[in-house]
Amino acid sequence: MTTQQLTAQIKKKNSFLCIGLDVDLTKIPPHLLTQEDPIFAFNKAIIDATHHLCVAYKPNTAFYEAYGLKGWKSLEKTIQYLNTNHPEIFTIADAKRGDIGNTSRMYAKAFLEDLGFDSVTVAPYMGKDSVEPFLEFKDKHTILLALTSNEGAFDFQTKAVDGRELYKQVLETSKSWKNSENLMYVVGATKAAYFADIRKIIPNSFLLVPGVGAQGGDLKEVCKYGMNAAVGLLVNSSRGIIYASNDENFAEAAAEKAKELQQEMAVILNN
Ligand SMILES: O=C(O)c1cc(=O)[nH]c(=O)n1[C@@H]1O[C@H](COP(=O)(O)O)[C@@H](O)[C@H]1O
What we know:
This protein is 44% helix and 16% strand. It is built from twelve helices and ten strands. The two termini are 27 Å apart.
């Protein structure tokens, strides 16, 4: 998918919501546990109830890898379901990969080619040759961790190296990499104060913004400093949406939560 197609979908749906499919079997409604594939059954119900409210889904692969072969199968079925039924929706494999070049090439093949995701999250710290293999795929996107939502972001990312914060160096340096037009960046919603500085370095790139909902980030603040002329934001909420209820009505409850965020977004987009 191109960023133009993503932006068109944002305008059409009045939404830049990304729903995180972080499925934990201890949190899903107990009645699903008797199904042959409870993770996929849960995801399918969530997708069926929310696809008109969001423009992206982001399964975090940890929640699938934790269940071994069965979990990976559920991930495969989820991306196939999305690509078959909602090809206009942007998909993110939140895998946070990155390794020496030939290994990154295999990660890129796994997520962007074999599974068929539109994008994958990648850690930048092994540098250019660890990221460029992901950038080779046409109309696929590499979402580089810039300034993450967690407390630990202050351990390294905001520390100055050669007089400039490390996250700024990641933004600046990565712009010169081959096919860098395929880059997007992760910036946590909990770091709203940093968005203005970030936009000075990468005015046009899409930002994946996790951390609203369960982690307490503020949507309005994020938009005030992070939005660009083409919107340029995908705001993610996982637990705050998918675990709104663990009764039989869980999918409708998730849709209600997604709608609350979408309506806030619509107001912001139309102001
Ligand atoms: O790459 C991410 O998506 C990510 C980066 C980051 O800085 N912080 C962050 O929370 N995430 C992911 O975004 C999701 C947030 O989930 P909730 O806090 O439940 O909305 C999880 O899948 C996290 O792994």
